[in-house]
Amino acid sequence: MKLISRTLLLVVCCGLLLTGIVSSQTSQPTYKYGLFEDSRDIGSVKMPGSVVYDDAKKTYTVAGGGENMWATADAFHYVWRRISGDFSIAADAQILGTGGNAHRKAVLVIRQNLDADSAYADAALHGDGLTSLQYRETKGGPTREIQSNVKGPRRLQIEKRGDYVWMSLSSLNAKEGEPLQSAGGSFRINLTGTFYVGLGVCAHDNNALEKAVFSNVEIKQRPAPIVESTLETIAISSKDRKVIYTKRTHFEAPNWSRDGKYFLFNQAGRIMKLPVTGGEPEALDTGFATRNNNDHGISFDGNWLAISDQSQEQRRSLIYVVPITGGTPRRITQLAPSYWHGWSPDGKTLVYCADRNGNFDVYAIPFEGGEEKRLTTANGLDDGPEYSPDGQYIYFNSVRTGLMQIWRMKPDGSEQTQITKDGYNNWFAHPSPDGKWLAFLTFEPNVEGHPANKDVTLRLMPVGGGEIQVLAKLFGGQGTINVPSWSPDSKQLAFVSYRLIEQ
User: Fold this and answer.
1) Contacts of 36 (CB under 8 A, 6+ apart)
2) Which end of the chain is more exposed for a tag (fewer CB within 10 A), N or C?
3) What angle (nearest 5°) sits at the alpha carbon of residue 289, between those of residues 287 and 292?
């Protein structure tokens, strides 16, 4: 689990323990304007805007100036609330007055933030009746639009589901209450965390102030889907899969025990132990370490478990070791964040990914403790180090040549050599115990980092390079196989697949 600036990984994707305090009483937030928290001018606006909310009629009269909502920056008046997840906002919209610029706009708009150049999407009704779905995919990027073939609709809706946004409109001459019709066209935009949704007016003339009335405003949020996790095994020879354990909760990162009798995986900050025959898992005693993430693994002799836990140091990950039967953790790394990934075959050294200088690199440290040694120095992320079973190499993944690819090096960091060179993002190479194969996880080239809930591929290649085989295509990602998960006989691989269940 890495919090990496370039990848902007979501915490839930990282296997962190999600904790919170739930009150026995829930209260609705108090908003300044009906459904909305506040309002303000966005960007450089000569004529200050305003909003008047009529509580009896539930209408919003928004006045806005500004030159435009287009190109690389916007200028308009915005009444907004913060929101996250999937939702829709709909409203009847009427631009007041005549004679203004034909491209003055009344909009339903979603913005990542309140900066003028923010990524955004809006359903825009223009003064001349043109209706379009406008968007800026990245901060400071260009604005694009999808023009509708419906002019002057009374009611508009913009909806976000996942990374996709689309618009629906009332049909021409539609009566009040009639269902909206899809306007056609959609696009992908990555709005992360909490963002802003609301109503806006732009005059398209910096010397003017235009008004629009929004009525029958509705905001509908979709509940987050339930995650179903499944621990599976796959036979290397046949590619047949077997379900070991399924539960409607999030768990990840299976280790296969050295004796082949059980799995370890992390769930809700705990390390869980499950027999290979299935059943119900039990929590392993890891003492105070109850915020374990998905970077954990078993020593070659089967006596120790390395964990990456976030209970200490301002909730930043540190590496500890505990006896395989459980017990009090012994701290290995003194600096945070550190994320374990590999044991040396002789058990004397641990390798891991760490941020020490604003760049994530591979480090090594003695099992008994001591000074860490930096093994990689390339710009960008180096991650997922793991020893070959003969101890001759450390395999890792690096983004230094563009996409994430599999590399290897000598244990002292020398002879760093790229192994995969295809057009995908390849993560977490795991050498088989017999030293013949590398199993790794592949994301599509447009996916940054190793996020959860993505279409991924488990792939296999000879350890020295060669033809790559597809083991399985599945819905997975973060937590699928980011730790060593081979069976001791090298015949099977354990992994976690996921399913999102709509509520």
Assistant:
1) 60, 79, 80, 81, 198, 199
2) C
3) 140
Q: Is residue 181 part of a domain?
A: yes
- Give exposure, 41-55, as e/b (b: 16+ Cβ within 10 Å): bbbebebebebebee
Side-chain-side CA neighbours of residue 378 (13 Å): 20
Nearest-angstrom CA–CA distance, 477 and 453: 6
Q: Report if pTM > 0.90.
A: no
DSSP of 274-335 = EETT-S--EE---TT---B-S--EE-TTSSEEEEEE-SSGGG--EEEEEETT----EE--SS
Rounded-to-integer distance, Cα 360 and Cα 464, Å: 26
Of 222, 250, 281, the last residue of a domain is 222
∠ CA 136-137-141, nearest 5°, is: 65
Q: What is the pLDDT of residues 374-425, one digit of tens each?
A: 999 999 999 999 999 999 999 999 999 999 999 999 999 999 999 999 999 9
- Determine which helix (DSSP H) or strand (DSSP E) holds 494, and give its type and residue range: strand 492-501
Q: Tell me how far apart the alpha carbons of residues 447 and 34 are, in angstroms, rounded to a whole number.
A: 38
One domain for residues 437 and 294? yes
Could you tell me if 230 and 205 lie in one domain? no
Question: Token pair 């909305």 is at which residue?
Answer: 36
DSSP code, position 55: T
Query: What's the length of the chain?
Result: 503
Residue 144 lies in a domain: yes
Structure tokens at 166: 């689309």
Q: Which tokens is 112 given?
A: 């990542």
Using DSSP's 3-state secondary structure scheme, residue 15 falls into: coil
DSSP 8-state secondary structure symbol assigned to residue 33: B
Residue 23 lies in a domain: no
Radius of gyration of the CA atoms of the chain, in A = 27
